[in-house]
Design a protein that fits this description.
Length: 254
């Protein structure tokens, strides 16, 4: 299990995280929701060992995450951050294949894994394109394919910060289905999204955050209540069902 235990992260006198505790369990898709500046990304980065907590600890399989080497963490944790700093004219296939480095895949395996991941994310036709010429959504799907390549039998936790960013509606659903497949393989997935409807549709557990604090955690049925969400996001939010699927929407006050 991956857990945050009373985490506080303080920068320039401001608490980016304030006594935050949560657990990410195997076989569960755990979604974090909250307004901008709520501390969602800080929590994910701290759980990934990329930010050190000022108070509290992150426990990975019962051990402090700092006790693991970077290579050990890269085998156990697969992480996709919100911003990807890559501005070199690699071919898409080369970028996707980079996911094979942490798992030590040989060249023949790299090609197989890259082809499989590109097909899953519908970017196989972009394999020989210059990465820098892609649209924002195509770049995001390229990095998601790279993440799929990295995920191996040893990967226990997958952490994704806004993986749907810039992706069109058709491919958003495809990405969420891939994430659901990863979860069904027994891996623990932590996901930050802004789409309330997709969160309610796919999540097993949802955590709401605001001002660096965890407001509540529970099942979608417990957490995704219009009154709770309206207070959290400071805007009127309504709910209905369409073809048996949850649909959340903002209600105009004009």
């Amino acid at each position: 299990m991956l857990s945050a235990e009373s985490l506080s992260v303080i920068r320039h006198g401001r608490a980016l995280l304030d006594n935050a505790s949560m657990e990410v369990k195997p076989g569960s898709l755990h979604v974090i929701l909250g307004p901008n500046g709520a501390g969602k990304t800080t929590l994910l980065k701290t759980l990934a060992g990329l930010i050190a907590a000022d108070i509290g600890r992150v426990a990975l399989e019962g051990k402090n995450i700092e006790e693991y080497s970077v290579s050990e963490r890269s085998l156990t944790l697969a992480v996709l951050l919100q911003e990807q700093l890559l501005d070199f004219p690699f071919h898409v296939r080369e970028v996707v294949s980079m996911g094979a480095y942490p798992i030590g895949a040989v060249f023949s395996q790299q090609n197989y894994l890259a082809d499989k991941a590109m097909t899953a994310l519908d970017i196989q036709h972009l394999a020989d394109r210059d990465y820098t010429t892609l649209s924002g959504g195509e770049k995001q799907r390229t990095h998601l394919a790279r993440l799929l390549v990295q995920i191996s039998a040893k990967t226990a936790y997958v952490l994704l910060d806004e993986p749907l960013k810039a992706i069109d509606l058709k491919h958003q659903v495809a990405v969420m289905q891939q994430i659901r497949t990863i979860t069904n393989q027994g891996k623990a997935v932590l996901l930050i999204v802004h789409d309330l409807s997709l969160a309610a549709q796919f999540a097993d557990t949802i955590t709401l955050m605001d001002s660096g604090r965890i407001v509540m955690t529970g099942t979608p049925a417990q957490v995704m209540q219009p009154d709770i969400l309206s207070e959290l996001f400071q805007t009127p939010i309504g709910f209905t069902e369409v073809l048996g699927q949850p649909l959340f929407f903002t209600r105009s006050t004009i």
